[in-house]
From TrEMBL, chain A:
Coiled coil: none annotated. The keyword Acetylation does not apply. It comes from Loigolactobacillus jiayinensis. This is Amino acid ABC transporter permease. It holds the Pfam family BPD_transp_1. It is a multi-pass membrane protein. SUPFAM superfamilies: MetI-like. The lineage of its organism: Bacteria, Bacillati, Bacillota, Bacilli, Lactobacillales. Residues 20-209 form the ABC transmembrane type-1 domain. InterPro entries: AA_ABC_transptr_permease_3TM (IPR010065), ArtM/GltK/GlnP/TcyL/YhdX-like (IPR043429), MetI-like (IPR000515), MetI-like_sf (IPR035906). The chain crosses the membrane at residues 20-44, 51-76, 88-108, 186-208. It is found in: Cell membrane. Keywords: Cell membrane, Membrane, Transmembrane, Transmembrane helix, Transport.
From TrEMBL, chain B:
This is Amino acid ABC transporter permease. Belongs to the binding-protein-dependent transport system permease family. It comes from Loigolactobacillus jiayinensis. The chain crosses the membrane at residues 12-40, 61-79, 186-207. Residues 16-204 form the ABC transmembrane type-1 domain. Keywords: Cell membrane, Membrane, Transmembrane, Transmembrane helix, Transport. PROSITE patterns: ABC_TM1 (PS50928). The keyword Cytoplasm does not apply. Coiled coil: none annotated. Pfam families: BPD_transp_1.
Length: 218, 212
């Protein structure tokens, strides 16, 4: 029991919270970037521009089927080999954005495809242009279908930032490892703290999305 | 890239086999554990449902790395020594089982509840109705998402690299650190992962379309 009291000294807790803040920052930046890029790529894949959409689709499939850890190693250790030297934060954000954009693009595409094609036909035959129909009829329906998978993807993203501990990004997992590396009595308390902190952040995001879901009346 | 692949083929190949082995073991394990917790989640008793729900919510919201490191770092301190491969595979199993439980639960709930009622009113017990009537119908719904979980499993097995699990990612790191040709080594590792995941991913998309 005294292990726990010692391990949860204010100094250690503060150090963990500093790591948590980096985790949240990296996640937030990656979520924003991957939502924008993934959204554009998903639309591009759906609207079927000759050759371009097929190529984009193939690249998305390749990135989606690679481990994020591998992409992270590539951005941090692989890129310097071809002359680009990102620091840990840049490498982490780059890897997360590349990987998550591909995941988001797939969610967006399947969300749009899940809308009954009759909706588009009806909108077009009522005199709307393609982009009007997309904007006013298809997307509002598709977004409702996309929210649950998007949120679980972003929860994964937050969890996956822990992988960046291997490139010595000072996020939550890395700070916990530094604390329990000093004293073996701290190991169990630190793992408990990690579980609780990650759980709170991830669960809060799912909870927010449920509220959003209700507001949209889905 | 090709020359690295050829020069270090034995290491790449053994890593490939370890990745495949860990993924298959974790798939079998998480299917069993996941099915059990899915059944708990839809039980007729409230406290049983709560147990299932708590398990799923906890392990879906904690990083795989934290679970894996727990088995690699904490368990040896208190219980027994575990090697990296075992710790990684146990971590993968527990983490994936929470997702598989959700998939199977959604599949069972997608089956018309009238099916269960009809089976019960024809004299089948809850367990009989589950195994003979509801489960066979639910499996068809769950196969494409389960396939996607297996793809995730193969990708997530790269976490074994953190705990010296001798998987593909671990071997890739060793080769990268001896040859210093990091970019080409990681491209080769990526190619080997794609051999496992890409065909499966296209097959699942085909099944989804065919059964939709």
């Amino acid at each position: 029991m005294s292990n726990f009291i010692q391990a949860y000294s204010w100094l250690n807790i503060r150090y963990l919270l500093e790591g948590l803040w980096i985790t949240v920052e990296i996640s937030a930046v990656s979520i924003v970037f991957s939502f924008i890029i993934g959204g554009l790529l998903g639309l591009l894949r759906y609207v079927k521009i000759k050759y371009l959409s097929a190529i984009v689709g193939f690249v998305i499939d390749i990135v989606r089927n690679l481990p994020l850890l591998l992409i992270l190693f590539f951005t941090f250790f692989g890129l310097p080999n071809i002359g680009i030297k990102p620091d840990a934060i840049m490498a982490a954000i780059l890897a997360m954005t590349v990987f998550e954009s591909a995941m988001v693009a797939e969610i967006i595409r399947s969300g749009i495809q899940a809308v009954d094609p009759g909706q588009m036909e009806a909108a077009r035959s009522n005199g709307m242009s393609y982009s009007q129909a997309m904007q006013h009829i298809i997307l509002p329906q598709a977004i409702k279908k996309m929210i649950p998978p998007l949120v679980s993807q972003f929860v994964s993203l937050i969890k996956d930032t822990s992988l960046a501990t291997i490139i010595m990004l000072p996020e939550l997992m890395y700070h916990a490892q530094i604390i329990y590396g000093q004293n073996t009595n701290y190991v169990l308390p630190m793992f408990l703290a990690l579980a609780v902190l990650y759980f709170i952040v991830c669960y809060a995001l799912s909870w927010l999305s449920r509220i959003l879901d209700r507001r949209l009346g889905a | 890239m090709i020359s690295i692949l050829v020069d270090h083929w034995p290491a790449f190949w053994s890593g490939f086999l370890f990745t495949l082995g860990s993924s298959i073991l974790a798939l079998i394990g998480s299917l069993i554990v996941g099915t059990v917790f899915a059944l708990l989640e839809i039980s007729e008793r409230k406290w049983v449902r709560i147990i299932g729900r708590v398990y799923v919510e906890i392990f879906r919201n904690i990083p795989l790395l934290v679970i894996t490191m727990f088995f690699y770092v904490v368990i040896p301190m208190f219980i027994a020594n575990v090697n990296g491969f075992t710790a990684g595979t146990i971590g993968l199993t527990i983490y994936t089982s929470a997702f598989i439980a959700e998939t199977i639960r959604a599949g069972i709930e997608a089956v018309d509840p009238g099916q269960m009622e009809a089976a019960r009113s024809n004299g089948l017990s809850y367990l009989q109705a589950m195994t003979h009537i509801v489960f066979p119908q639910a499996i068809k719904i769950t196969i494409p998402p389960l396939g996607n979980q297996f793809i995730n499993l193969v990708k997530n097995s790269s976490v074994l690299a953190f705990v010296a699990g001798f998987d593909l990612m671990y071997q890739g790191n060793l080769i990268a650190s001896t040859t210093f040709d990091t970019s080409n080594t990681y491209l080769a590792v990526g190619l080997l992962y794609l051999i496992l995941t890409l065909p499966l991913s296209y097959f699942m998309r085909y099944l989804e379309k065919k059964w939709a």
